[in-house]
Amino acid sequence: MITNEGRVQAAFDSGVFVLKLCGDVRLTLCATLDTQAQQLARTPGLQSLIIDLREATNVDSTALGFLAKVAMAVKDRILYKPTIVVNNPDVQRMLEVMGFAQYFAMVEAPLTEACELSDLPEVPADMEEMRLRILEAHRILMRMSEHNREEFQPLVEMLEAQETSHSDKH
């Protein structure tokens, strides 16, 4: 059986951090991506960031929101925009429509292949943590462009309403 389960790999070498997303990357990996964003913001010696999407078959909006969070976490720490390596025209088009070109340089192939990548363990999250991360990811995407604001406003409002009803029960 062939699986297309998403996974995240990473490597850090000579000031270059490489984050590689493979397969079908969905919200179940958002805790892993969020943890990476927080760690990257504190990584000493960070000089550049490369996000490799060449083996990603799908990246859902929550995962995209956390990629944007990663870029924002390092923007004041590195000299150049983070780079996204993407050779799938559909994924590239999706990134362009969502405004990623403002925050990332997009290339079809890296200048050099990364050193050995390690699989990052999936960080578990309960339903409430997942809801909060989905909400955060989509708020980030909404700040990136008017298109995203119109696209994700209904979802954010629904998730915020769940937050209100959840708070009322306690």
UniProtKB/TrEMBL annotation:
<dbReference type="Pfam" id="PF01740">
    <property type="entry name" value="STAS"/>
</dbReference>
<dbReference type="InterPro" id="IPR002645">
    <property type="entry name" value="STAS_dom"/>
</dbReference>
<protein>
    <submittedName>
        <fullName>STAS domain-containing protein</fullName>
    </submittedName>
</protein>
<dbReference type="InterPro" id="IPR014557">
    <property type="entry name" value="UCP029548_STAS-type"/>
</dbReference>
<feature type="domain" description="STAS">
    <location>
        <begin position="6"/>
        <end position="100"/>
    </location>
</feature>
<dbReference type="InterPro" id="IPR036513">
    <property type="entry name" value="STAS_dom_sf"/>
</dbReference>
